[in-house]
Amino acid sequence: MSFTLSSKFTALFLLLLAFGSFSCKHKVAAAPAAPPPAAAALPTRAVVPPTVTLRADRPAVTRGQSATLTIATQNATSVTIEPGLGTVPVNGSRQVTPTATVTYVATATGPGGSAGDSVRLTVNEPPPPTATPTRTAVPNVTRSDLPMDQQIQQAMQTILFDYDKADIRSDQMIKLQAAAAFLKQNSNLRFTVEGHCDERGSEEYNLALGDRRANAVKQYLVGQGIAESRLSSVSYGEERPVCSEQTESCYQRNRRGSFTRIR
Predict the structure, then answer these.
(1) Is this structure's pTM higher than 0.85?
(2) Contacts of 163 (CB under 8 A, 6+ apart)
(3) What is the pLDDT of residue 3?
């Protein structure tokens, strides 16, 4: 009997101990589930702005002539050119015939915006028509029946110059044309061309001026077909005046180119 109670007491003790151990355990919460991975973002495609280049095949034309404009673009859907052309192909060329100087402006548009370029075309007026020169008849100032000295005096006349100038005046050219005609008819004659000045200016300056005047006369005759070997030149400056009055009339007579026959 005692054995039975002891056994029951032991079994009860073990049961209570097991129950206490179970009741002291805490319930562990389950870990939250991990969120699903985010979806990968799609790449954004960049919008590229357009570009445009406008060029002309020449910088200038004469009025009535044409020029070619060349258009080159990228990333453009439409192009206009003003003034006057409007919408044109985004790449290509157009011929223009402006009547006055103009600046052409090209504007290209596309998804990325707009861009522009310009070119200036100068229009020049055509040159005036060239007038046919009037040929002036050279007067026959010599008579072949006269002595040669008189023929020379009539044909080889003094050439007058403006103050401080060595240019052949237009009213003196008829004299030189007559001299050239006479020299062509008398190919055996040779002359020295003398350059003279009035008394104004220094001696050195007038010598140089006289030299320029003599050479201007000589070169004019050479240009008319007279052999240069038949002509020589010398300057006397103010040393050999034909008059000595201090008047414009006298000064004009001293500003001259004259001829002396070489024998």
Answers:
(1) no
(2) 198, 200, 251, 255
(3) 46
